[in-house]
Amino acid sequence: MNALTIKALGFAVILILATIYVVTSMDIDLTDQVNAITMGGAISIAVITAYVTTKYIGQMKTDTATGELMEDNWDGIGERTNELPSGWAYTFLAVFFWSMWYGLVGYPVDQYSQIGEYNEAVLQHKEKYEKKFENATPEVLTNMGKSLYFVQCAPCHGNTGDGLSGKAQDLTKRMSKAQILDVIKNGSNQLKYPMGMMPPGMASGQDAEDIAEYIAGGLKGEAPAAYASCTSCHGADSKGNNGMSPDLTGYDNILMTQTLQHGKKGIIGEMPSFKTMITPIQTKALTAYIQSIAQ
Amino acid sequence: MFFHWLEKNPFYFALMISVVISFAGLLEIVPNFAQAARPLATEKPKTVLELAGKNIYVKDNCIACHSQMIRPFKSETDRYGKYSLSGEYAYDRPFLWGSKRTGPDLHRVGNYRTTDWHENHMLDPQAMVPGSIMPAYKHMFTNVADIESAYAEAVTVKNAFFTPYGPEFKRTRVAWEAHRPKVLADAKKIADDMKDEGVKKAIANGEVPEIVAMIAYLNSLK
């Protein structure tokens, strides 16, 4: 071991210590795999740099030219007939095979496209996603629904779901009295339930007031006599006859699905359709979340 | 031999290189570009009201904070909808891709926001989105949109770039006067979904407030 090697090793040790010092002072979590790999990379760069520098500086001091001098020369500058270094040759071969693989198999020039890669990634993700959340527990769904809600729903319905004082549907309640009166008066078929159009004017005057009061109050207590005309379609329990018509008691999965599919335009304003943005599993998650914030 | 001569004349050698590369570029890039930049079959040119809205979008510099370009990444398409295609911008003059996303992308905002939301949001963004740093655009409710210039723009792009506007788009005042009620009818349709009384009154008087043109434009972004 000559003096140069010792100097180089000292240099490498200083580099490594400096790296470790900087990393620890920056409070980087080394248990994180990516950070640990980066740290390992930094250390190996320091070691390789020290080794290569030592080797070649040492070689420059003692090395003499080998190989025959070629006859050809360029203005007196000659060239020796050395063998091609084996490292170069192997690297050349490796690059050759890699580029063949790249152009013909990995990213074929006539078949590869960025959009194609995107489509494949989305398809794969969808498959994985559907498998993972097929039988998700209610807590998982509620949490997923919550994060979805804050991206897609909160801009209109507000962070608490209260509809921002009447600017959108209040999701903590089913319907307000004014909304029910509007539907009774004008009918509705926006959610495209199998039962079809609810005809306008099913009740009027005091009857309509009573019905609206009863539904807006959460269907508690004695139902008014006029409510009988509602139960024929919405079911005796007001839960919508197993998906034939809207549930009047709360937000069930069918109501959520129909609303997200078709959108809705009521007296408050218009809600667009979200059918391209929200999948059935996400609908289930949103249902779970909205049921969890209902009063 | 020609190439011996070329190798001894660096200037002509460089010139020849650029000619060869340009020619290859011409063959490889131009046909592909011409194909992709063609308008999609479903793409329609903007109506006069929407064009007026686009001009307000430019004037109020919405592009400084909002992009109109959804990239093909899952994280973007989950939030904004399908990725953008170049054919969708074929009738945009100028295109409004933007490169800064202080606010969200707007290329498909018409799919997931509606007239009444925009009305509330332009008046007071923080009331809709807590913590939003978007300023309010109250002046849009009183300023009058320049629908006449928008009509002139439609006629100009029709004549200059063959944008497929109908035969009723002509360079005469008569043609504009004949088209004007259609613009006002479009505006009324938007205003019917709005709550602001001043806006409704202005349209009844034959004026289109900026907010109406703006909402028409935003709703057309699908």
Q: Could you walk me through the main structural features you see in this protein, from its secondary elements to its overall organization?
A:
The complex is a heterodimer of chains A (295) and B (222). Chain A is mainly alpha-helical. Chain A folds into 3 domains: 56 residues; 82 residues, Cytochrome c-like domain (Cytochrome Bc1 Complex, Chain D, domain 2, Orthogonal Bundle); 72 residues, no CATH class. Chain A is 58% helix and 5% strand. Chain A is built from 11 helices and 4 strands, in the order ααββααααααααββα. In chain A, 18% of the residues are buried. The model of chain A has no long low-confidence stretch (mean pLDDT 87). Chain B is globular and about 85 Å long. With 222 residues, chain B is mostly helical. Chains A and B meet through helix 4, helix 5 and strand 4 of A and helix 4 and helix 6 of B.
Short account of what is shown:
The complex is a heterodimer of chains A (295) and B (222). Chain A is built from 11 helices and 4 strands; from the N terminus they run H-H-E-E-H-H-H-H-H-H-H-H-E-E-H. Chain A is mainly alpha-helical.
How would you summarize the topology of this molecule?
The complex is a heterodimer of chains A (295) and B (222).
Chain A (H helix, E strand, L loop, with lengths): L2 H23 L7 H30 L6 E6 L2 E4 L5 H21 L7 H19 L5 H20 L5 H4 L10 H10 L18 H12 L11 H7 L18 H10 L1 E2 L4 E2 L8 H14 L2
Antiparallel strand pairs in A: 1-2, 3-4
Helix pairs in contact in A: 1-2, 5-11, 7-8, 10-11
Chain B lengths: L1 H6 L2 H27 L11 H12 L14 H7 L28 H4 L2 H9 L1 H4 L18 H15 L11 H20 L4 H8 L5 H11 L2
Helix pairs in contact in B: 3-8, 3-11, 6-11, 9-10, 9-11
